[in-house]
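>> received
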Amino acid sequence: MTKIGISKKTLDSVGKIITFFLVWGTFLFLFLPIMFVLSMAFDSRKILAFFPPRGFTLDWFVVFLNYPPFIEGLKNSLLLASLVTVVSLTIGITCSLAIVRYDFKGKEFLNTLILSPIIVPGVVTGAALLNMLYGYLRMYNALPNLIIGHTILTMPYVVRTVSASLVGFNRTLEEAAQILGADELTTFFKITLPIIKPGIVAGALFAFSISWGEVNLAAFLTDPFTTTFPVAFMGYMRYYSNPAIAAASAFLMGVTAVFMIIIERTVGFERFVGLW
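>> returned
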């Protein structure tokens, strides 16, 4: 009986082929829907239709920019995302310093609590906040309610990026500054803050972009006078089915892409996921 064997070279070739198809299959699975949406944003047809587009036009971007709820939503989302970024950074930097540098009772619970909004669906968080803020606390102003809700969602990302910067921090630099006469506050602003700046910038960009595009939680906390852009977008889809929807989506994707590029150039995605 002849024994049939497979050489190592053959196995390596098969592995490379499988890896190639898996990588490109994943890439196409993720990016083909985005390409379809972008193509529909420039489609000359009057309704959302299947790919490919029948013509090229910028009219749907004009419709998008001339729709008052979209413009008002953009203003509200910009203000909200800016305020949420400031609040998230203030709380997130403090929590990161406590979690990374100090050992105290309940530390693991606090860390889990801060990161839990990543796991809990936004719909659940929104419904819970609606019941608490409107029902128990009688807070009927949408803007502060949205700030609270969005801060809860963005906090894990700020804490994650700032903590990653603090983990490899050389604390002898702070000790040297204090030996030379600097107090703790001066040391923090002159030594600590500049060194962890990449993590802070990345956290700020994540907080802004997440708040900017959040719709699940915002749908519960908005009111007729304060509506975010994603909520206005969802409301538009209830009554209209034209490529202006794709134009609005393309605008959101463009803003998000800009933030992702800034994050990559500033700190790198490896720092965020903790690879180095």
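>> Residues 190 and 222 are 40 Å apart (CA to CA).
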